[in-house]
Amino acid sequence: MKKVPKRKKKQQKKQSSFYKPDREANGHQMPHTITTRKQNNIGELIQMKAGKINIKEMKKKINKSMGLEAAFDLREKNPTQVTDWIPTGSRWLDSIICKGKMAGIPVGKITELAGQSSVGKSYMAVQIAVNAQKRDIFVVYFDSESAIDPMFLEESGIDLDNNWMYAQAITVEKVLGTIEDLMNDYPEQRFLFVWDSIAATACEKDIEGNFDPQASMAVKPRILGKGFKKLTLPLANQQCALLLVNQLKTNITTSIAEQYTTPWFAPGGKAIEYMSSLRIWLTSRKSKASFVFDENNRRIGSEVKAKLKKSRFGTQDRMCGFQILWGDGIGVMDEESWLEVIKQSSSYRVGGGWCYLKDPKGKEHKFRQKEWKSKLEDKKFKEMIIKMMDYELIEQFDSGKSNIKLEGEEE
């Protein structure tokens, strides 16, 4: 008889660790855990181990994906931090812009300088341009009104031969395009772009169309909204500053409460409000007491109140005051305004027509108010005043104990 071969038992397939039974439902096995696997060069399956993400590799990948350097370590140098400031010409104003430090116009950001008619917007913009040149920043001045006088610029301190370029602001589109082109053509150069004024600059549709205001309604705000989106990051990455000189116009409203709380508005749309890191509004009093006259009773300047309408540096709604001259002595009367700060210090007192100021050592300095400017010619006295101002405006405010306020600041 022939031997019948034994049937081989069917070998059960080993279930992969990729799939482990947990429980049965309706006769089907349910997954318990799923383990990620990866195939190496030899072809073997190995299990990936969890670990920390390589930040440097991720940074390189993001930059490669973006096509430029867009990923930064915020503990190192990065475009979000403002490392340089352009002084405004008023030490009082520079002291209240950024919490805890002496500041000015932030480099790498957009700043709006808006003001009433004849309040001194252009004069202050020129002072900022002068200080930018001293920092080796190239100034490009866009003028929409063709109103800048070369003699006035030179008297203000502008060097017309170095780091300066004047250009007419033909249209909004051309100004925005020129700013973008200059940054692309000179990537290593820092610029200060002064646009004077954005409210008086027409868009191309205004020039090509008729005089009907309805024909180009809301065109400029839409252009600015698109333009600022393109310029904000390049300005930060290249450490350039854009200063927008704007006009404050009367807010015509039927609400009596709004007339008192919001008497002014700056045209140009919401893009300026959102994209600006700093907004400074300049206003002046109507009374004759705010005017500055010379010895011949000619008006040569006016008193200005500056308010931080918006500040990303922790100082919104702070105010200061100073005088701006446009007569023989052009510029901001900076040192004259220091006395208004010192007057509110606990070290200052008045008696019998004399002013008394006690220094940190306890010594009392005596002078008359009209002698303030000549008193500052003493270097030691001036250094003491600067330290007192820094203490009152910066250190005290940073600690929450500041008591220096401009008249009407609490409103």
Describe the protein in words.
The chain has 12 helices and 21 strands. Helix 5 packs parallel to helix 7 (219-238). The N and C termini lie far apart (118 Å). Strands 7, 8, 9, 10, 11, 14, 15, 16, 17 and 18 form a 10-stranded mixed beta sheet that branches. The chain has a 3-stranded antiparallel beta sheet with strand order 19-20-21, with no helix packed on it. It has helices at residues 55-66, 91-97, 121-134, 150-156, 172-185, 204-208, 219-238, 256-261, 270-275, 334-342, 372-375, 379-398; strands spanning 21-25, 28-31, 37-39, 45-47, 85-86, 105-106, 110-115, 138-143, 164-168, 191-196, 241-247, 249-250, 264-265, 278-283, 291-293, 299-311, 319-325, 331-333, 348-351, 354-358, 364-367. A hairpin with a 2-residue loop joins strand 19 (348-351) and strand 20. It has 411 residues and is α/β, with parallel strands linked by helices.
What is the helix content? 25-40%
Distance between the termini: 118 Å
Sketch the major β-sheet.
Answer: 10 strands, mixed
Structural class: alpha/beta
Strand content: 15-25%
Q: What is the β-strand count?
A: 21
pLDDT under 50 segments (min length 5)?
Answer: 13-50
* DSSP summary: helix tally: 12
Rg: 32 Å
Gross morphology: globular
In round numbers, the mean pLDDT is 84
Label this structure with key terms:
411 residues, alpha/beta, 10-stranded mixed β-sheet, 3-stranded antiparallel β-sheet, 21 strands, globular
